[in-house]
Amino acid sequence: MGTVLPFQKKEGSQSTEAPDFERSYVETRQEDEKATPEGLYKVKDVDRVTKLVSIVDTLNLALENICVAIADFEDEVEREIQLDLLRNNIFELILLKKDVSQNFGDLLTAFHVCLKNKTNTPFSKIELVKLRNVIGLIKNNFNMSDHVFNECLYILDENFDLTIPMRIEPENG
């Protein structure tokens, strides 16, 4: 009739259950495969080289998006689409900034403030060019020195109000 496995019913036998060692192995394996809440939100570790490649790729995309926004400046819809893509690039860079440099992270925060503060009014072409210049500097020096950091911060502060987050008054109530 063929080979009968230990947990299969043999002719004349009453039991169809798996032996205890088989059942415990299956139960242990199922317990190991259960998702934990922490595991759902845990950022997967990526090695440093992969992270740096991702940063360079994202900076290239950001530069491309800002260049398209400048080239299509008169087309408001296309410009705003490209600026939304740029915002997404900056958010991605903020997630990747760990272990690069403190100046890189601080500059991304300043860049994010510039983008966030211009949600009610459109960017001028000069402001977009300044943002492009800063992205170019970041791209070439993302492990930046204090000199490059100060130069980028100066460009941003000269054209955008970086102190707006400090001037927001809390609501009483």
Q: Summed up, what is this model?
A:
The chain is 66% helix and 0% strand. It is mainly α and 173 residues long.
Low-confidence stretches: none
Radius of gyration: 28 Å
Average pLDDT confidence is: 77
User: What is the global morphology?
Assistant: globular
Helix/strand structural class? mainly alpha
Q: What's the story with the biggest beta sheet?
A: none
N- and C-termini, Cα separation: 81 Å
Task: Describe the model.
The protein is mostly helical. It contains eight helices and no strands. The chain has helices spanning 20-33, 37-41, 48-71, 76-96, 102-117, 125-140, 146-159, 164-167. Helix 3 (48-71) runs antiparallel to helix 4 (76-96), helix 3 (48-71) runs antiparallel to helix 6 and helix 5 runs parallel beside helix 7 (146-159). It is globular, with a radius of gyration of 28 Å.
Tag the structure with descriptive keywords.
mainly alpha; 173 residues; single chain
List the helices and strands and how they pair.
Elements: H1 20-33, H2 37-41, H3 48-71, H4 76-96, H5 102-117, H6 125-140, H7 146-159, H8 164-167
